[in-house]
Amino acid sequence: MKDRKFKLTRRQFIKGSAATGVLLGAVGPAGILRQSTAAAGQPSPDIKYVRTTCSPNCTGACGMKAVVENGQLKAIIQAADYPEPEYNPRGCLKGLSMMNLVYGPDRLKQPLLRTGAPGKGEFKQASWNEALDFTAKRLKEIADKYGPESIGVVFQVGGTGYVQKGAVSALATQAGWTLHHAYDMNGDLPMFWPMTFGVQTEELEPLEWLNSTYIAVFGSNLLATRLPDAHFFVVARNRGAKLAVFDPNYTPTASKADEWVSLKPSSDAALGLGLARVIIEEKLYNGPFVKTYTDLPLLVRTDNGKRLKADDVKGLAKPLDTPAYREAYVAFNGRLLAVHPEKLDLPLDVSLEGEVEVELKDGQKIKAKPGFQLLKESLNDYAPGKVEELTGVPQDDVVRLAREMASAKALHLIYGASNYQWYHGDLKGRALALIPVLTGNLGKPGSGMSTYAGQYRIRMNLAKWWAPQGKKQNWLPWLYVLHGPTKQMKAKWPKNGIKALIVGWGNPFEQHNMANKLRQMVEKGDLEFVANLDFQLTTSGRYSDVVLPAVTWYEKTELVASPVHPYLQLQQPAIKPLYEGKPELWIMRELAKRLNPEFEQHFFPGLDPDAAAEKVIELLLKTGGPAVEGITLEQLRKGPVRVKSAAPGNRQIPFYEQVQLKQPFPPVSLPAKIEQTAQFVKSGRIEFYKDEDVMLQLGEALPVHKPPFEESEYALNPAAREKYPFAYVTRNAIYRVHSTHSNNVWMNELQDGKPRVWLNPQDAAAKGIKDGDPVEVFNDRGKLEAYAVLDPGIGRKVLVFEQGWWSRYLGGTSYNSLTYPFIKPTNEIYFVPGIWAPNTAWNEALCDVRKAGERI
Amino acid sequence: MKKSSFVLGLGLALMLTGLVTWGYQIARGLIVTNMRNPFSWGLYISTFAFFVGIAAGGLIVSSSVYLFNLERLKPFTRIASLSAFASTLGATAMILPDMGRVDRIFNLVLHPNFRSPLVWDVIVITCYMLLTFLSVYFQLLPDWKRDGRGFFRGWTNNLSLAQVQAISGRWSKRVSIVGLPFAILIHTVTALIFATQASRGWWNTAILPPDFIAMAVASGTALVLLISVLAVGKERFAEYQGAFKGMARIVAGALVVHFFLVAVDLLIHWWWGKPEGLNILSLVFGRYGLVYAVELVLPAFTMLCFFSQKGSSSFKSLILGSSLLFIGVFAHRMMLMFPSFNEFPLSIALPGLGIENWPYPIATGELKEGMPVFVSSWAYTPTLVEYAIALLPFGLVLTVVSLALRLYNFLPHKGNNSLRGKSGISYSNDTASV
Amino acid sequence: MRLGMVIDLTRCIGCRSCMVACKAHNSQPPGTWWNRVFTPGASFHQSAVGKDGEFQMNFLPVSCQMCDNPPCQKVCPVGATYTDERGVVLVDYERCIGCRYCLAACPYGVRQFNWEDPRKAKEQAGYMKGYDYGYPEDYRDQGRLVYTPDRPRGVAEKCTFCVQYTKNGESPACVRACPSKARIFGDLDDPKSEVSRLIRERQTFRLKEELGTEPKVFYLAPAKPVR
User: Fold this and answer.
1) What span, in angstroms and rounded, lies between the C-alpha atoms of B154 and A108?
2) Residue C35 and residue C174 in contact, taking contact as beta carbons nearer than 8 Å
3) What is the CB-side half-sphere exposure of residue A378 using CA atoms within 13 A?
4) How confident is the model at residue A856 (pLDDT cuts 50, 70, 90)?
5) Which of A254-263, A642-651, B70-79, B410-419 is predicted with the least confidence, judged by mean pLDDT?
6) Which residues of chain B make contact with C151, given a CB cutoff of 8 A?
7) Distance from CA of A746 to the nearest CA of B (A)
8) Helix B208-232 vs helix B241-272: crossing angle, to nearest 10
């Protein structure tokens, strides 16, 4: 496809030059120049431009224009064709250098069968038939021996490609294999969302940042992790918004803020609760909002800590139309009221404070308090002085910041993944959520709370393609594969465990929790078979029995919609698949044919992979539901199309329907059904009080601050308290999308080809480490070799590693060998795949550091 | 004979080594040097500047004879001119391997940019080469006439020997007089290549051209002195002691000027004390202190030695003093590069943070395992290839000089003979005894 | 016409996308970067500068400053470096003799030299046989080769304001690639252009202004609103 805008520009330019013979001056937002004399410099007709979408696992989904000549991808530039000029040009350094991976030395050329020991990289080349026959044979054997559910499938996240990933999901569903959801596997699932709002996750689209008057960022490095959207942060400030960044480390994001608040690692809950306390004490909260949308007016029994059910109270009853997955609770405004869980219509004179005596139907008299009262009481532990002690933030600042935030017209709070990927990430999120909710900053432009991590969200109904004939899917959170089953787990553990893996779009032998453990599982034979689909030979490929060469997103047809970017976009092949690479849909179809000829019917047999992919896209658009209603393939071919929403201008404003249209919480989180997620917030409201038994047992009914490591590392090994004084934090760098681009030659030029560990110069001095020294970061589980960056902006006793480096740059070990698959019981109260599930806590890891070679 | 054959053989061997290695460099590119984007001139340009420096002496000596009536130097005008010509050849030969595209050298003629000091240098060096050649030529012409050999002498066929001698005398003088400003110019212009560059604090000083001239007078004269002393040998040393002493005093005097200029330059850098200047000084006295010590101490020794009665009149001390001076001058040429390239012109000051001179990193131009692409300084040390190629001009100079000495008569003769010149010094054609 | 650029350092997020776009679209061999973005004062890009809890981290993109008084052009002995009629300083890859005087003369360290055969350097990086990246067509300005994806060995090169694009009326790759729109490109002679307006209305600075090189790249200093 030749780019429309480009061509038009040129035609105008030729016309202009013929007519006037002088330059016409700068036109358009990017200052496009037209110049007359250089007719010789017209682009050659041999060069074509293809509009496609860059979609590694970064949520960017940036529209790109491929410069193609002679069947080769020569360069990439942003398409810059979004209707809102603020979104243009969307892209980053990784996407712009994708040629290095497409044509790079690690590119897979043909199917490979492993001949040597796992990880050694010894393979023999095979034909597609040979490789597919072998794969099908092994999968059948394992399914026969251990049951099909013992075959685990890792296919990362749907939004980066509904068609090709759907093909993997579809075959896994047909064959009864077990799927591992990427959202919790990647540690990106912020558990406070389902706990508090009943949703998987919601995010304000970045264009809306421009409507914020106050942006409070808690531990998110937007300038590194959200490159295509980072400018909104700066522009918001230019337009007068206040930006405050709360982070132990001085990050690029902090450098752009009005205020950087340095706090102790993982003490955000204490600060959030401290801010909430000031807001409540000084009555800065939005009473009507709290009464209408939250559970805080609902009464909680003081005898057992459970929320008071209308059905239990004498004279009250659950409304008849209450769905089974909801519960009607009780509020008090002089008299007891049964609160309808699907109507946000409590009278505004309802009590938030105090205590009432309630007579139950069984005649028992109990005392009950509104959640707000309990919250207020619990916040007594977070007086500004105490908060200063816990967080290191001066108490005067705590009070000032609380007042500032409460008075903001549109407050947006961003809670970063690096911050919630801790054992108590749920508590921190629940505490921080108090601030926008108490102040009524939700469901309106520029307001709310966002997390911005993970390509988790499914934008439309995918069932027709992803789950053939509505067949039930088996899901198992990844942590259990590493950790083993737990007593209280709600997910179903396959009776023989996971014995084989099919890995696509991911690199778990590098990138996942305890990657070394996964490697050992292959080495010991616990994992009997691993198949890998990828376009390059990764570490995971090296541990696989069969490696099937897939293609990059410049070589196939795909449909993309990411959570953060509100556009539906196509990937259109710019070049033919290189070498013997094939789109995943084709690979799955071939595999399906070999497993069970009936399966193949689902995959549009007979059509070439691109034609089949187009059929799938048409099917998805037709059956996708309201978000994509009316959108056609033809429209998408022309450019990006905004996904529909209830908010004006189809803006992505979370909880718009709840707040503006008074629909009950939660909104649907696809692909889950409402009954699956509504059970998380049975009251139909934002819930700060959680009365599930586990929450009560752990003392987490209300958000509290719990210091890191106490229930994780120290519980696992009390000696760690003395032995490993450093927190091991793995953050994202601008040079990689997780482990993708780790081998991108230009990215490595930009970093001198050296993985780095960042630490505070004072900590370094104590260890005798100088800037640039090779160091070893270690704990009982593993080690990491890297080079020291002495950064005075890094907090004390923290080692920050920029994640994603392949082992081959790290002396053969994975930087994830230091982590541990901690499972917090609160994550196991319910199980809905990728929505309420045990979540990887990458940063809940302790370590020590020494100069390389100083091993004792 | 044996000695001269050895020198010729050595010269040819060095030249061959240089040429072969240059061939290798042409095949692989300048990547075989240790020069990179942040440090883009190295041993080659230093060696070039070194040869330009010593090339001056020849014409300065012979011109002085005519201009200042320094009669006692007269016996050495031929050898002086020869050394100048050879050094100019050497300088020219050195510049060629430094060029990334020596195959396009004709562009200098086709598309000269007269604003470039490099083009000025090409012009003055070419002129100087021509003049030194003519100087040699006219001085040898009477010999050739007499012996019926040599080249470009057809036009003298109809002239008598006496006429040729007259023409030789007249034109030698003319060439010397015209040559002197060119001798000054090649240093001025070579210095201007550097001194014009406001981006490089170490270079950008009006003191550089006079200092180059001072250094050239010192080192050029020292070269003539060295060759002369060696040529006359120990046994006849006393005969020319006066001339040698005169030359030694010229060397020492020029060095006084040089040290004066250097001192003023350093003082100015230090006194104003801007961060770039101070950083240069810290490079000069710190990181490159050793090279700089060589640059300072050896010529200082030569200067003192040549001022002293004993030092300026002993055979050994003249040889030692001159040789040490060359090493010092070479160090000076290297020190043109080290501090200059390692004080990146684009250095950033961050007021309020105590950062005065943060060098903005430069890409080296090479991707190599384990090496950073972006650097804030470049620890340049020439590679073996560079050293080998830098032998080329040395080989060329040795070859030309020894060949010339072998073929023609450049040295003052012991006794009187028919070819007695005005000064009473004569030349013989039996160079075989040398 | 005098093409120039304004770089808004407040908007620059230090992401280096412009470096990469520049490298890709201009087919720069491994080790060669026409365009750089660093954090002045930091030993590593994007680490904090300062102490005792008071830090800053500003990013400074530097490519050819397109001087109106360009030392690189003045020193070039063969006129391989010249300024075209739009004020863009260009290198004629067919005329350069590789003397590297321009590398010594440039105060900004933007000049890059082809120390080795770029094709070989690319091969060593392991690309598919026969593959080369970058805008694929040569561009000649009045017969002079000022862009080619396949640069000769032994010549100097630098930013051309993407002559292959700007001659067609497109903006340079770095401008189009900047997700933060920190770079504004246009005609300094046109008072209506955005660059002219910004230079007129905002406080700008140029690098090493004291040298009098008269760069046509202007910077808007990084700023934070005072509150």
Assistant:
1) 76
2) yes
3) 22
4) very low
5) B410-419
6) none
7) 10
8) 150
Contact C32 B104 (CB under 8 A): no
Q: What was the pLDDT predicted at A672?
A: 92
Query: What are the Cα distances from residue A667, in Å, to A44, A112, A204, A685?
Result: 51, 45, 14, 11
Helix H or strand E encompassing C218? strand C217-220
Distance CA A260, CA A269 (A): 17
CATH architecture of the domain with range C3-40+59-220 = 2-Layer Sandwich (3.30)
| pLDDT for position C226 | 57
Question: Which sequence spans correspond to the domains of chain A?
Answer: 4-102, 112-188+457-642, 713-851
**CB B54 within 8 Å of CB B83:** yes
Q: CATH second-level architecture of A112-188+457-642? A: 3-Layer(aba) Sandwich (3.40)
**How do residues A660-683 score in pLDDT, each as one tens digit?**
999 999 999 989 999 999 999 999
Cβ proximity of A241 and A213 under 8 Å: yes
Confidence band, pLDDT 50/70/90 cuts, at residue A603: very high
Statement: residue A430 has pLDDT above 70: yes
- Report pTM: 0.93
Contact A274, A387 (CB under 8 A): yes
Q: Does C33 touch chain B (CB under 8 A)?
A: yes
Domains (range + CATH), chain B:
2-433 (1.20.1630.10)
DSSP A579: T
CATH topology of domain A713-851: Barwin-like endoglucanases (2.40.40)
In three-state secondary structure terms, B202 is coil
Q: Is there a contact between B70 and B77 (Cβ–Cβ < 8 Å)?
A: no
CATH topology of domain A4-102: Phosphorylase Kinase; domain 1 (3.30.200)
Q: Which of A230-234, A458-462, A774-778, B304-308 has the weakest average pLDDT?
A: A458-462
Distance CA A399, CA A376 (A): 16
Quick one: which of B250, A233, A303, A598 has its CA closest to C15?
Answer: A233
The count of C-alpha atoms lying within 13 angstroms of the C-alpha of B49, restricted to the half-sphere facing its C-beta, is: 29
For A69, which of C50, C136, C177 is closest by C-beta distance?
Answer: C136
* Mean pLDDT score across all residues of chain A: 92
- The DSSP 8-state label assigned to residue B37 in this structure reads T
Q: Which of residues 116-135 of C touch A (CB under 8 A)?
A: 125-128, 131-135
Q: Is the Cβ–Cβ distance between B324 and B298 less than 8 Å?
A: yes
B contacts of C71 (beta carbons < 8 Å): 197-199
- pLDDT (tens digit, 9 = 90+) per residue, A820-836? 999 999 999 999 999 99
Mean pLDDT of B75-88: 87
